[in-house]
Amino acid sequence: MGHKLFTPISIRNLSLSNRIVVAPMCQYSAVNGSATDWHLMHLGQLCISGSALVFVEATAVEEKGRITPGCLGLYSDENQIALARVIEFVKSYGNTKIGIQLAHAGRKASTEIPWKGGTPLDPNNSDSWKTVAPSSEGYNLNWPEPKELDFEDLDYIKNCFVKSAKRSIEIGFDIIELHMAHGYLIHQFLSPISNKRNDKYGSSFENRIRYPLEIFKAIRDEIPENFPLGVRFSATDWVETSSWNIDEATKFSLKLKEMGCDFFDVSSGGNSPKQNIISGPAYQTGFASIIKNKVGIPTIAVGQINEPFQAESILNTGQADMIAIGRGMLYNPRWVWHAAEVFEKECAYPPQYARSHHSLIGLPIPGNPKPK
Q: What is the CA radius of gyration of the chain?
């Protein structure tokens, strides 16, 4: 078999130069939802990495949808202006396509940033806010009780997703991913662990997927037909008593495909402290493989994929179409360059850094004598 990691792939109208994706990773460094110089630096370095696609972190569609007060948002003109500055920068200097992950944290919102504990903010803290969810159950006994969303609330949040999607396109994003994973609001509707409703949005599988599908359709209907739109979802709750598992996730994926979903980013867990995750290298890839082979649209594998041969094997054995790398890219932002050397392939280098390439070591520096 030939190598696949550095072969191109297309998602709707978007052509990608290779199969390597930088996963969305929260930075907790925004101010009132607006991007800062940290995002300029963080995304700037990742967009010269040689990967085909970089996703911006989970970006809240309303102020109450942020995980922490430091989370990025795209719900105001100020947010849009700040993020547009970053996107203009990375498109001017980067060599990758840029995507955004739109999200709402639901009952897992209003928490402290991770390096300060990640626990729910004290209700008396001026930075805290009342959380919302499908039902009034908190994430666990130590978390506050969220407000159960009524029909008016649901329409409002759905419209927030649509508005943020439109803002994303206005400022130059190439692709949108909807965050339906990790125990955040849309996952909370999908799972019976967090969805205890008795109306048309709860109880049965068909009802639990109704609101997530409504959000997807509302966005698909309002954005250009050729614009790529996909979904990240958790393939399982990793809780034995939950019916949200790979079987329900597969049926949900088929519904999304019918509605025009262009890709799936397959993750898992995050919706219950009772989860029993069996983790290890590429531990979620089996879920991606099932979705890819049963649903049949481009699928991204993610989770502890850190080595080039490991990534290549996943693609060559037909388990996924693309590989998303998160923490590994933070540790080694030049991961793609090194992988290209392993397979003797080419990937994009910014011209300012070209002389660091192994084939160009010794390139003359202007004003200096040429090496002998």
A: 21
pTM here?
0.95
Show the domain range for 44.
9-360
What's the total number of domains in the chain?
A: 1
156 is catalytic: no
Tokens 């547009």 sit on residue: 84
Which residue type occupies 143? Answer: W
φ/ψ of residue 40, rounded to 5: -60, -45
Is residue 106 assigned to a domain? yes
Q: Distances in Å between the alpha carbon of 78 and those of 60, 74, 163?
A: 14, 9, 14
Does some domain include residue 369? no
Q: Per DSSP, what are the bridge partners of residue 284?
A: none
Catalytic residue among 28, 139, 184, 201: 184
State the Cα–Cα distance between residues 211 and 156, nearest whole angstrom.
Answer: 12
Answer yes or no: is 2 within a domain.
no
β partners of residue 179: 232
Return per-residue pLDDT of the chain as tens, 372 residues. Answer: 568 999 999 999 999 999 999 999 999 999 999 999 999 999 999 999 999 999 999 999 999 999 999 999 999 999 999 999 999 999 999 999 999 999 999 999 999 999 999 999 999 899 999 999 999 999 998 999 999 999 999 999 999 999 999 999 999 999 999 999 999 999 999 999 999 999 999 999 999 999 999 999 999 999 999 999 999 999 999 999 999 999 999 999 999 999 999 999 999 999 999 999 999 999 999 999 999 999 999 999 999 999 999 999 999 999 999 999 999 999 999 999 999 999 999 888 888 887 777 766 655 656 655 555
Q: Is residue 52 part of a domain?
A: yes
Q: What is the CATH number of the domain that holds 319?
A: 3.20.20.70
